């Protein structure tokens, strides 16, 4: 019996690698696109035909040719933010309700989760994670402590269930001495409207839906959010998000057996960024870092926060490739490096005791990157249409990365637009 294939696309660094753009580019090759984890902490940007869109909870396959898009059980969904996002898309001529399905097992982010997020961050003092403030941690905590409210709950006695959960959260907040509820009533009102609005969509048993789709020989692309270094198990803990962002997350977040997974596309920037607190070995604090931020427009798609910038870290990437079983790399934002005399890549770490390692250690807070330098190509690549046009210096940078990481780069992105994409090695 012919079954369809499942490919996974995910970030290999600290998020914002350019996942949204590539999901959109690859969508025509699939029948269904599904998000498997994260929530409105994500901001996935797509640009085409002079328009720019930022998606948070809705899969990035929504713009191409009437494909089915699924929000899986592993996602945490905020009804008010979802409503805002969906209405904006509908206004811009992209109706969704027919082709966006929501798993009944996805958990809801309540307004009180957002207050708890703020309160828990404040309690951490200097140890703050720098969360997006969207209630992600508290919602996943309720899920794993078996206290969560799910999309399926909307269908029965919802008001009662909501009141009980809210009450429990308010007690927690009171025990923390938290009193800042500014704007809460307004948020709650919109949130409850969001619950009603969600009823326009199909709530599905997405694990069955997806496995039926595969049985019918159709293909699925799983869209990761965040990045491997933000994974709750393998990232730079505790400065991480609260879900499994890695390829295994696609199995638990959608109900797919691991034997169904085919390609794992690992998305990386040609350099590296991070938003929020926590270790980042190759971070640059000088004008080079600022130049990367300016040229790459490195400001958060969700929070507008400045992203921290640095050189590409091949030790960190090698680790991410291992954890995810990456079969193909996709290199984004190569054009951002178009105007540098020298480009660097981290090829080893020096540990505090002076030892040199090529393996990501337990703690990366005190490691010093060892760099290999490359001559910059000083060429505007943004209008290129084939890899033959790439300057020699860029080809050398790419070849070095592929050799070091023992993984081919199948796509090179040279600008934010859908069209600024060059496929190779196929
Ligand atoms: P995501 O969260 O992984 O989907 O990435 P974000 O959308 O948060 O951040 C990526 C940013 O880079 C967005 O503003 C994109 O429009 C932009 N972008 C994507 N690919 C490229 C590229 O190849 N070159 C440039 N200059 N910008 C890009
Ligand atoms: P996309 O999908 C970059 C970061 C936050 C913070 C940490 C925990 O657009 O790549 P959370 O709100 O999840 O509890 O915050 O994770 N973070 C992201 N950084 N891109 C993202 O998503 C992120 N989602 C969360 O800045 O450091
Ligand atoms: Mg983003």
Provide a short characterization of the protein structure:
This protein is of the alpha/beta class and 426 residues long. The chain is 30% helix and 21% strand.
Give keywords:
single chain, 426 residues, alpha/beta, 10-stranded mixed β-sheet, 4-stranded mixed β-sheet, 11 helices, 21% strand, globular, binds guanosine-5'-diphosphate, binds 6-O-phosphoryl inosine monophosphate, binds magnesium ion
Description:
This protein has about 425 residues and is of the alpha/beta class. The protein is about 30% helix and about 20% strand. It has eleven helices and 20 strands. A ten-stranded mixed sheet has the order 9-7-5-2-10-1-11-15-19-20, sandwiched between helices. Strand 3 (about 45-50) and strand 4 form a beta hairpin. The radius of gyration is 21 Å and the shape is globular. The protein binds guanosine-5'-diphosphate (GDP), 6-O-phosphoryl inosine monophosphate and magnesium ion. Guanosine-5'-diphosphate (GDP) binds near residues 15, 44, 301, 332 and 336.
